[in-house]
Amino acid sequence: MKPVMQTEIHLGHGDCQRAVIASLLELDPQMVPHFAMFRARYWWHVLHYFLYALGWELEGCMNPPIDERFHANLAECGIDGYHYAGVYSRTYPDVKPRVTHAVIIDSQGVVVHDPNPNQLWAGENVFEQSDIVASDLCIYLMKPREGMEEQLAEKRLPPLGRYEKGVSDE
């Protein structure tokens, strides 16, 4: 994991998700789509296909309760022990409906990278937060596509274009 900071901090249009994916995959953020620029119902598909093209399978999103099954699923997925998690924004806590924010956690739930420069989630354990209930936390389950393990371990990636506002410019 190579931490990348988000460069856009705008209510509902920041690029924290882009920064988290770039960090996990150790990519230049301009190589990753700006997911917030896609309509609400399309960003998931863009994320899925982007990861798939790079050899990763997006298994879905896992919510608490934090139990043995939760930890077993977490152990099977992730990138070098790190996971993409969606939490509520601490930058915009009073906005309704609540705004989400992307962070990177370790397998114990500790935020090891908060891409927002204000670092409001840095070092927090999202599994232990009293303000997080089952529907508020989402851990995105990513694992290598079948047959891609060696290529991913060697960090051999297919050629990528550059993305600007969700559209490839190459």
Task: Report what the structure shows.
This protein has 170 residues and is α+β, with helices and mostly antiparallel strands. The chain has one domain. The protein is 21% helix and 21% strand. The chain is built from four helices and seven strands; from the N terminus they run ααβαββββαββ. The protein has helices at 16-25, 43-53, 68-76, 149-153, and strands spanning 56-62, 82-88, 100-106, 111-113, 138-144, 163-164, 167-168. Strands 1-5-2-3-4 form a five-stranded antiparallel β-sheet, sandwiched between helices. Strands 6-7 form a two-stranded antiparallel ribbon. It is globular and about 45 Å long.
Instruction: Give a count of the beta strands, DSSP E runs of length 2 or more.
Output: 7
Q: What's the main sheet like?
A: 5 strands, antiparallel
The average pLDDT is 82
Subunit organisation of the chains: single chain
Distance between the termini: 26 Å
Query: Which regions are unreliable across 5 or more consecutive residues at pLDDT < 50?
Result: 165-170
Count of discrete alpha- or pi-helical segments spanning 4 or more residues: 4
Strand content: 15-25%
Strand order of the largest sheet: 1-5-2-3-4
Rg is: 15 Å
Number of domains: 1
| Structure classification | alpha+beta
Shape: globular
Q: In percent, how helical is the residue content? A: 10-25%
N to C succession of SSEs: HHEHEEEEHEE
